[in-house]
């Protein structure tokens, strides 16, 4: 994501898992992707602090009833990255489905 929290790109696993296209995802605010499942006040606060405060977060858990997946537990990690060639700060957001692990 860029410093305004617009998705620059996502990997194929993201598109397949959440059944969204590149056109529905790229250049959109993370909060507007899919069925707005990432529009969570606490997540918003965490993401908005990353670039200005050079912070990061780990192990933020989200429970969400996805239309095509059912109830899932996702773990999110994010940090600031800087790409020399582009010369801008970005946020790398990793999303892991931990539903099965959490059930044990």
Please give a structural write-up:
This protein is of the alpha+beta class. The chain has a single domain (12-103), classed as PAS domain (Beta-Lactamase), CATH 3.30.450. It has helices spanning 12-18, 22-25, 41-53, 99-103, and strands spanning 56-66, 70-83, 88-97. It has a 3-stranded antiparallel beta sheet with strand order 1-2-3. The chain starts with 11 loop residues before the first helix and ends with a helix.
Quick take:
The chain has about 100 residues and is an alpha+beta fold. It is built from four helices and three strands. About 30% of the residues lie in helices and about 35% in strands.
List the helices and strands and how they pair.
Elements: H1 12-18, H2 22-25, H3 41-53, E1 56-66, E2 70-83, E3 88-97, H4 99-103
Antiparallel strand pairs: 1-2, 2-3
